[in-house]
Every structure is written in C-alpha cells, then in structure tokens.
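User: What would this chain look like folded?
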Amino acid sequence: MVTSLASRLLEALGPDTVRNSREDLAVYAFDAYSEGQLPSVAVIPRDVREAALAVRIAFECGVPVVPRGAGSGLCGGAIPAQGGLVMSMVRMNRILELDVRNRRARVQPGLINLDLSRAIATHGIFYAPDPSSQKVSTIGGNVGTNAGGPHCLSYGTTTNHVLGVEYVDGQGVIHHTSLDDSGYDLTGLLVGSEGTLGLVTAVDVRLMALPESVRVGLAAFPDVESASEAVSAIIAAGIVPTALEIMDKLITSAVEAHYHAGFPLDAGAVLLVEIAGPRDDMAAGEAAIARIAQSHGALSWRSSADAAEREALWASRKGASGALGRIAPNYYIQDACVPRTKLPAVMHEIDRIARAYDLQVGNVFHAGDGNLHPLLCFDRRDEHAVRAVVEAGTEILATCIAMGGTISGEHGIGYEKRDSLSLVFGADDLAAMGRVRNVFDPRQLFNPDKIFPTGAVCGEVRAAAIA
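Assistant: Here's the prediction, encoded as structure tokens.
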C-alpha cells in the first residue's frame, strides 16, 4: 500500500513535490519535542490543489496524513506517530489577500508568524499573536495549537484573530469557514484542533492598528513569589498591560550572558511589563504600575529609554529557552495554566518538586494570564535524569490541575500530553470530543495518536466513533 501511495503521488505531483528517499524523510521524523518515526512519504505542496490531491490519494490508500509547519512544536504534534504522509506546508507561505482598510488578510499556513507583521508594518497594522517562536513558527502551526504569546494578556490568543479558514477534508474536498456566516462556529472548532479534523490550507486573520506609543518597564524582585503577587495586584487594580512576563534568577542570568540587555543579576526574579496606547496616557500608566510593583517588594524599576532598548528586552525574553544551553544540554518545558492568584503557591510547589528530584528549573512565563513555562534542565544521556524530569513534569501538571489550572496554555496536547488529558476531562467528555472528530474524520487518519489518551479512556472515544 505504501509503495502504491508513493507511486501514485509521484505520478500525480512529480518528484519535486513528493519525497520518499530515507534521507529526505529523516527530517520529517521529529519536531522540537521528540523524534517519532519515519513517514512513508512527504509532500511539499505549492498550492491548495496539490495539497487536496495528496490528501485524497493518501486517504484512498488508507494512509494517515500529518500536517507540518516549521516543526517548532513542543508536544509532538507534528511527528508521524504511525508513519504515513507528512504534509509540509513550507512552500505555501504567501499573503494571498490584504485588506488594509478592514484590517484583514488571507494567508497561507506556511507563512512565518513574524513575517506577516513585518510585511504589513508600513500600513500601520500588525498581527497580534506572538509566540516566542514567532521568528520561525508558522501561522498554520499557530492555528493548530491556538498559540498565544506574551501579548495574549491584552490581545488574546490565535482564536481571537482568526476570522475563517480554508481546509481540506479526507475526500480532498476544499471547504471554507467564516465568522461572517451564520450557523455553527466551525472556525473556532478548527483552531486548536492540531490537524486532527482536516488540513488547513489558508487562514483569514484579523489585523490590528499599531499603537501610538509603547513603553516597557522592568521591575526587579527578591523572588518569584513576590513578583507573582505584584502581577495579581496590577490586574486587580483594573490595569491590563499588553504584557506581564516573569523570569527567575536562573533564566535571567542565562539571557543576560547571551543578550547583554541589562537585566539585574542580583534579583530573584524580574517582571517585564509592557503598556501601549495613546502617548499622553503612558506616563501615568507606567507610574501606577511602578507604584504597585514597589508596594509588593520591587527592588528597582527601570523604564526602557527607546525602541532599541525595548527590542533588546523582548529579544532576551523570547530567546530565553535557547539561552538555557549555557546551563544544561537539554531542557523539558511544561505549558500549564493556573489562576493568577495561585501563581505564588504554584511557584513555591514547582521549586519544591525540582528540589525533590534534584533538578535545576528555570521559570519564564506569561504571568498575566497564568501560563507557566517551567524548564527542567537535564542531560538526556543520563537515564536517571530523564526519568526524574518526566516524573517531575507530571507532578507539576498535577499540581497545576489541583490548583484550578489546566495542562496546556498554548503548546497544544499533541503526542506528549495526550494521556494527561484524562486528568482534566472525564470519559464522557472525551467521548463527546471523539464524536466531533468522527464527524470530520471518521477513519481518524488526520494526525492520529494526537490529543486523545491511550488506554481505557481512549476506548470510550473509539466506542463513540462506532455508536
């Protein structure tokens, strides 16, 4: 069947679009999370016609289809868990339509997130969702996981900026959804579905006007807990900055050694605050936030002097994960969410768990919406360390759930967290989700082995598909 698939795809699309040598396929066996297994074949379509044809042929051969953007996902969402066809969208990377007046655009899924904002900046508009991977991650991948980023506190996540999608079903039929249409919100359903409902081939996005003025402040605190308490106090005062980010001492030392942005090395944690809006409002807004920070133990407050300094601070924050290479050869990152008021308690527990497993942990997170990203440092060549990291990560997730949180804020569930989903949802809930998936993909050939748990609960989902 695999031989038939490759030959049919080659005949229909040609060798420049279809790859099936072992060397070519090796690059599609992994993403930023982990290695999977070699796909049977990879297709790199140039347009929706080629993508739809490839999907139809794969489904006729009974072979899974795994969508892939930049491969920057952190939960194994793009790994071919059952082999099959990997659909790499990197060639479909254009802005198809731009409506500046109505602040809308239609883009292909392979477009790099940051490239969109760069391309439209001269019109005074930008695309708001900005995950830390925005220099490399694609719009399609962001749609798959409902990515957020530092500015989602004020602007919302990807789902708040997607107005419609074009997608291909298992028959190779092209469909369009739009928030402008009446009826069910299929657009919202597809955002965050991680490629399990169909292949997204175009995205209609909402654009925003660039703010008149932007300021970034940096507060140093003695510890993460006091910085977290300041975050809750800022929001409680009715102030909603565009971003509230925390980095602990381990992360700060790593990013400062690499970026030299002027972070204080004697602080237990730093709070990065951005506000945006009318120029006349900036001074008063910054002063109010500084007062709250100082009343909650801030050791210092520094305001960025110009755009270059703001960009340096943000480059440091978004490059924090990579900077950890100075500390350990590997890290395991979690992506849990908790209520803001629980941040101090959760940070205390994360520190306890790290000490119990004898692990270094760096905390860098979207404090404004309680989206935690503890990075557990280890060496994957040490089997004991690998086991400790996995067990500690699971304990951190359980702790966040116990405090009213959930297991993912923006990275998705993918392959890594599918068994943890049953910690949040019961069998009936998962079965209901399975029925929805069954409507779109009754054969479950779109990105199989993702999102849904294995074991008993997965049996409930399979039973729902049969019912």
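Residues 95-209 form a domain with the Uridine Diphospho-n-acetylenolpyruvylglucosamine Reductase; domain 3 fold (CATH 3.30.465.10). If you want, I can go into more detail on any region.
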